[in-house]
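User: Need the bound-state model for MV4:
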Amino acid sequence: MFQKILIANRGEIAVRIIRACREMGIRTVAVYSEADRDALHAQLADEAVCIGKAQASDSYLNMERILSATVASGADAVHPGFGFLSENSKFASLCEKCKIMFIGPPPEVIEKMGNKSEARNTMAAAGVPVIPGTKQPVTDAAQGMALADEIGYPVMVKAALGGGGKGMRVVNGRDAFEANFQSAQMEAVKGFGDGTMYIEKYIEHPRHIEFQILADNYGNAIHLGERDCSIQRRHQKLIEESPSAALNEDLRRRMGETAVRAAKASGYRNAGTIEFLLDSRGNYYFMEINTRIQVEHGVTELVTGLDLIKEQIRIAAGEPLAYKQEDISVRGHAMEVRINAEDAERNFAPCPGKIEAMHLPGGNGIRIDTAVYGGYTIPPFYDSMIMKVMAYSGSREETIQKMRSALGEVVLEGLVTNLDFQYGILENERFLSGDIDTDFISSEYGM
Ligand code: MV4
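Assistant: Bound-state model below.
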């Protein structure tokens, strides 16, 4: 097992990882930027190293600084958390060269799955259902239009190196193809330095269902059930839950088996997420693999009783999975609400500031993951997510009631947050009935 782990991240995920390490008897090294001198992660870790200026490119994204801090501190592994360098194959590869264990999949897997067009082909070849679409990369609008005619409108044009909604356009008909293709491609070149595109049939009103998987270094892979992440706004998830109200036992078993097949087809190791779109008729399609621990991992922890960060560390240290698929059971219902320092009245503009006073809920079945404290000033340089409120109970209804009660208790004085907006969703009739899809926020709230 590792003696010391450097956490290449900040905020609540860094705190989450530090706690897991401490429970396992592993020493921790935090890295922090000049804007994060007072950040909780820097105070909780056994050691803390300042790695540069506030801007992420000068600190949390600076590979050299982070690798130097790792070597200087004598850490034997790096946990990247999510965001920042977590899905950077070059960073994972540099860690390997420096004989530092990167806690995540091998660089080759990160790179291969980072190309969504290539991932799609790998999955199709392995018998994983993919959305009908192009098999070869598309770089030219005229070529794309011919392929879109074959697929049939509406289609979706996507950047091969995209994800999270960037470099992506819905095209409703032939007339609109060229302009949309060009603008998506320009966005791709600007954002990812590559204009390779692919085209898929557009799936209307899908649900976003993702399966958590774990794979060890010895060919064992299991899934830990699904999360329904359909409640999102502009590709930012707002509420996640497990299990999904849309799955029955049979669909869950089939999608879970497909997720494991997808993991094996990619040569996956460590914790990962297989994203699917589920259409209104119960057809599901592979979309992407996220090669990192995710924000919403706690939802799966609540329903399975596992600690995903500890599992990641054990797998990276070369331990075989301690569970077989039949050892995993999903019990009860878990939900996560993301609290962001942002103004729902002003188009969700980030609103960093000082927390003058704070009260957090607790009690039976409530979990809070956060790195803020009373008197803390949220710096303006990073993500606006400041807290995850999770609730766990026996049923979806009871979990929603628990979540409402918990959100009602939160006091974050001095800050503007999306708390009221989130509370409103928990009172929405469609949400309560479980009738949700990825267009829920735009159709219910017109945004
Ligand atoms: C789609 C789609 C419908 N049809 N692909 C959004 C981000 C990226 N991961 C892929 N996305 C989508 N791809 C086809 N062929 C709808 C979306 C989509 C979406 C997916 C998951 C969660 C939220 C979403 C919001 C809008 C669009």
